[in-house]
Write a structure and sequence with these properties.
Number of helices: 4
Largest sheet: 7 strands, antiparallel
CATH superfamily: Electron Transport, Fmn-binding Protein, Chain A
Strand order of the largest sheet: 3-2-6-9-10-5-4
CATH architecture: Roll
Shape: globular
CATH class: Mainly Beta
Strand content: 35-45%
């Protein structure tokens, strides 16, 4: 098989398509769609989100020091896309996308009712990287909708229907291939 060299770019795939909520100084909420998101530490539990400084949400997250990573289901993919194409400077994204804010338990930004999983985060570091700032957020609370839990109370991906972003396209996730450690059994 021949290998083709391409210019360096963000070719890591898939990446999660998430909705991050934040608030302005008056407490008005905003939503930003992000795909540059990932787990960065397990103790304490932390996530990293990459946000362009030109985005409205960048200043809100920087100034408030808090955000919520809301994990949407495929059922609201259109709302996720919409929130990535309009600015919170001009549009109330909750209203435009038909989404419902819910109070968080530990932070000022709200959760999104239509997202089955939400990670409430406090900014621990903001690292300018170039085109993006990496906000490292400690996860203070995780909220899950009971509808995505199986009979034993564990998260069920099939019920949650998460989706990913792959080079300009949204894709649902497919079949389970195994569980952690299955290669050693």
């Amino acid at each position: 098989m021949a290998r083709i060299i391409k210019r360096p770019h963000t070719a890591l795939y898939p990446v999660p398509a998430v909705l991050v909520t934040c608030v302005d100084q008056a407490g008005k909420p905003n939503i930003i769609t992000l795909a540059w998101v990932g787990t960065v530490c397990s103790a304490p539990p932390m996530v990293g989100i990459g946000v362009r400084p030109s985005r409205y949400s960048h200043g809100l997250i920087r100034d408030c020091g808090e955000f919520v990573v809301n994990l949407p289901s495929a059922a609201i993919a259109e709302a996720v896309d919409l929130c990535g194409h309009v600015s919170g400077r001009d549009v109330d994204k909750f209203q435009a996308a038909g989404l419902t804010p819910l109070p968080a338990s530990q932070v000022k930004p709200p959760l999104i009712a239509e997202c089955p999983v939400a990670l409430e985060c406090q900014v621990r570091q903001a690292i300018p990287l170039g085109a993006h700032t990496l906000f490292l957020g400690e996860i203070l609370a995780v909220q899950m909708d009971e509808a995505v839990l199986d009979s034993s109370g564990s998260f069920d991906m099939a019920l949650a229907r998460p989706f990913a972003y792959v080079e300009g396209e949204y894709w649902t996730l497919g079949e389970r291939l195994g569980t952690y450690g299955f290669a050693r059994r």
